[in-house]
Amino acid sequence: MEKKLKVGILGGTGMVGQRFISLLEHHPWYDVVTIAASERSAGKTYEEAVGNRWKMTTPMPDAVKNIVVMNVNEVEKVAATVDFVFSAVDMTKEEIKAIEEAYAQTETPVVSNNSAHRWTPDVPMVIPEINPEHFEVIEHQKKRLGTTRGFIAVKPNCSIQSYVPALNAWKEFEPYEVVATTYQAISGAGKTFTEWPEMIENIIPYIGGEEEKSEQEPLRVWGKIVDGVIEKAAEPVITCQCVRVPVLNGHTAAAFVKFRKKPTKEQLIEKLNNYKGLPQELTLPSAPRQFIKYMEEDNRPQVKADVDYENGMGVTIGRIREDNVYDFKFIGLSHNTVRGAAGGAVLCAETLTAQGYIKAK
Fold first, then answer.
1. Can you tell me which residues form the catalytic site (predicted)?
2. The dihedral of CA 202, 334, 302, 237: what is its sign?
3. Which residues have a catalytic role annotated?
4. Which of 50, 250, 265, 347 is the most exposed place for a label (fewest CB within 10 A)?
5. Residue 330: Cβ within 10 Å count
6. Which pTM value belongs to this model?
């Protein structure tokens, strides 16, 4: 790319916004020029606005420290400074829907980490290695919005990244029933242990709304475009429990699967290790070289050892074994704020850029 695209981060002071800024620090295609947040942060430098709330393990990039934060609600003013935006705003669902559509209607593409538009029928919800063809629905969305280049695209919930890629790699064996339990890190709630001391040595067996997302969002990822909207798939039927565990980063899943065409363990492993998607074919900047890696050791994947596989953009799977009720069971692990949040959105943006949906204004 000859000239970097100008990027804005909506909700740039929160944990996911900070992750966007960290991931984009040396990005070859994108340059963060604008950060927008709530009215209370507007007018301060980014360093002043974040203060002691910087939650990343790497230092705040020097390039953003003196950027003066804009008011995210001044849509036209913010949009005029950028080619597209990433959205990580902390608002109600209805407020998020409205503000993301407002940005899109300024002819500014919006790549969102938020859940608000995940079920809007003409908004693509994409894991780029699995369903990039859903970006085609953007043309129908533009007609509804009355735009020529403005649109909204979203990535799915962080919890599904730890088991859905494996199920997708095994599609030819027709998985039709799945039981999953996810063990989810506290950064998924935007927290650290300092802010949430009651999570130390504790497990909370409830995360609001998470089980429905974990059961339903995979079916939308596997859906088809019909008459300009995405219709969700009927199978596999998924039932899920979601548990908050005392881990900073990394969502682990324990899953049980029934297949119509029963594979061997060796076939399952081979499909994982050889799985490639469009980001690998296009060698996109954030794409993991190997999206899914099978780990042979009985005690892997582990959060401490494996969460940063492929810079947090890869998925590790282990402990595939036959089950006496289901056909097979396995363990999956993904980085919830990289692959599951900001990194997944950056990879969506890269795919959209490569396909010509995002370009300079």
1. 158 (acyl-thioester intermediate), 251 (proton acceptor)
2. positive
3. 158, 251
4. 265
5. 25
6. 0.97
